[in-house]
């Protein structure tokens, strides 16, 4: 559909018209986090997403806090999706999936390598149904290699990819297990790469008319984030070590506690910023101290420097500390909780925190759409639906199944 972005109505925006992926249909054969997150991103950018769940529903429906018998996470996790139930272990499900594939531009899945083939959904079968299909596969280790068949979740990818080693306090400071980031970052990063891969493959298909496959490994997705760790090891033999809240290559950049116990991040790791911070601290002579003159010297003496900054921040309540830092144009922020984010004027002004109506939960807060592409609605078109909410609509309207066939599938336990 050729629509001028300047003539899109409010109703069009609600339907996703004008979004970059409007007109594309994506089939999600995903569970837990990675593939559903990838499909959610594609849905946020306008694609129509059909999610296939087992009759009991995706396990994430049961994860996290509960409200009115439902998990609020699900409202976001499955937004902009039409959910149908299929027991993929039943023989009759195979033909339904292939019929869905015929109507879809892309498929996103995160089963173990070979699992879909064992269900009869081989590469040949999928391509026979839709020769130009884009297939995005997310797995722990990738679709080949000696570890391809090993079980993995996001936390395993985080450990193999090197992140879990780095998200810890400096060696010798504590004897607890390496710290987790706090969210399923391995799954989410893999989902982002899968969504990017789908978009890239669709763009190539527009030129070549050929389908393609996207292969995303949890471990590789995390590993790709490690900045200069690999070339540093290759060139110098050095193994990057965890540094707690600090940055290993720049100082001062850390979290410092205020008098009222709030952690405030201060990033004054350039010479002009450090000089400005030293002035705010009432210690301008520190800017010329040989221990802190230049970034390399500050990094070498970071523990001493952090102690001096903490001595200053601990004399001020967080509000006064932030006012002083803002006046000095020093990059800073208190460490936000989700409550801080929900109340933040910038997040609200940008639509990154918005109240939407969920059919089960009532009013609920959703994050906005990232990335922001002109013409794309920033609010979800729909929230996470009930199990099997769109069985009749998708099978009837999209696939053209009659009521008798749908009833037979239900009787066979396929739906």
From TrEMBL:
Any one Gene Ontology MF annotation carried by this entry is: transferase activity
Q: Where is the signal peptide?
A: none
Keyword Transferase in annotation: yes
The answer to keyword Cytoplasm applying to this record is: no
- List the residue ranges forming a coiled coil, or say none: none
SUPFAM superfamilies from the xrefs? Answer: CoA-transferase family III (CaiB/BaiF) (SSF89796)
Q: What are the UniProt keywords, alphabetically? A: Transferase
PANTHER family with a match to the protein in the record? SUCCINATE--HYDROXYMETHYLGLUTARATE COA-TRANSFERASE
In its UniProt entry, what is this protein called? Answer: CaiB/BaiF CoA transferase family protein
Q: Which organism is it from?
A: Muricoccus vinaceus
């Amino acid at each position: 559909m050729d629509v001028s972005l300047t003539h899109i109505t409010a109703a069009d925006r609600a339907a996703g018209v004008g979004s970059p992926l409007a007109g594309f249909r994506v089939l999600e054969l995903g569970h837990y986090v990675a593939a559903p997150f990838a499909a959610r991103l594609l849905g946020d950018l306008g694609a129509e997403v059909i999610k296939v769940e087992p009759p009991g529903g995706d396990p994430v429906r049961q994860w996290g806090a509960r409200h009115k018998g439902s998990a609020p996470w699900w409202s976001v996790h499955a937004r902009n999706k039409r959910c149908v139930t299929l027991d993929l272990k039943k023989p009759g499900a195979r033909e339904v999936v292939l019929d869905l594939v015929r109507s879809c531009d892309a498929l996103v899945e995160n089963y173990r390598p070979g699992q879909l083939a064992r269900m009869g959904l081989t590469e040949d079968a999928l391509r026979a149904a839709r020769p130009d299909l884009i297939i995005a596969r997310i797995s722990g280790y990738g679709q080949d290699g000696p570890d391809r068949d090993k079980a993995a979740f996001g936390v395993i990818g985080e450990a193999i990819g090197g992140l879990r080693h780095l998200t810890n306090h400096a060696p010798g400071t504590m004897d607890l297990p390496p710290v987790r980031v706090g969210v399923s970052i391995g799954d989410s990063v893999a989902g982002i790469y899968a969504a990017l891969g789908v978009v890239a493959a669709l763009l190539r298909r527009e030129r070549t008319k050929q389908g393609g496959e996207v292969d995303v490994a949890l471990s590789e997705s995390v590993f790709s984030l490690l900045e200069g760790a690999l070339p540093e090891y290759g060139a110098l033999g050095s193994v990057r070590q965890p540094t707690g809240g600090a940055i290993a290559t720049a100082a001062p950049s850390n979290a410092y506690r205020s008098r009222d116990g709030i952690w405030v991040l201060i990033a004054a790791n350039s010479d002009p910023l450090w000089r400005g911070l030293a002035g705010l601290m009432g210690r301008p002579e520190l800017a010329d101290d040989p221990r802190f003159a230049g970034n390399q010297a500050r990094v070498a003496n970071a523990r001493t420097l952090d102690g001096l900054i903490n001595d200053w921040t601990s004399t001020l309540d967080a509000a006064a500390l932030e006012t002083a830092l803002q006046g000095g144009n020093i990059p800073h922020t208190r460490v936000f909780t989700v409550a801080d984010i929900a109340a933040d004027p910038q997040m609200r002004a940008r639509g990154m925190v918005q109240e939407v109506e969920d059919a089960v939960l009532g009013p609920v807060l959703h994050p906005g759409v990232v990335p922001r592409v002109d013409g794309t609605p920033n609010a979800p078109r729909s929230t996470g639906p009930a199990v099997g909410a769109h069985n009749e609509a998708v099978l009837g309207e999209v696939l053209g199944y009659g009521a008798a066939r749908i009833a037979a599938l239900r009787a066979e336990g396929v739906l």
